[in-house]
Amino acid sequence: MSLASIFLLPRLIMVIVECILYGIYIVLFGLAVWILPRKFDTPSVKRFFFPAIVILFFFATISLAFDLMAEVYVTLFIIPPSWVIKTGT
Question: Which chain regions cross the lipid bilayer (predicted)?
């Protein structure tokens, strides 16, 4: 196993897990946006919970986008490719 793949494998696993959890969150967000206004017709839901859910989804999306951009940057520019890494032979 090359040195570059040793550095990339944990990062790849982390990105995959984060994207899977974000996909689950998208489904939960869609259900909450669909259910909350229909089931709970109270002003507190419309004034507090609904905007809070939208803001949390926005922050989760921004966080995922920044994490993915950072991982692309690290993969392309920080971790050297395998042909640059000299082995002990």
Answer: 12-36, 48-66
Which residues are CB-contacts of 79 (< 8 A; sequence separation ≥ 6)? 4, 7, 8
Q: Which of 74, 67, 58, 73 is nearest to 15 (CA)?
A: 67
Distance between CA atoms of residues 77 and 37, nearest Å: 46
pLDDT of res. 39: 81
Number of other residues whose CB lies within 10 A of the CB of residue 26 = 13
Q: Where are the beta strands (DSSP E) in the chain?
A: none
User: Residue 41: phi, psi to the nearest 5?
Assistant: -95, 60
Closest to 66 measured CA to CA, from 15, 5, 16, 28: 15
Q: How far apart are CA 72 and CA 33, in angstroms?
A: 32
Rounded alpha-carbon distances, angstroms, from residue 7 to 1, 2, 18: 11, 9, 18
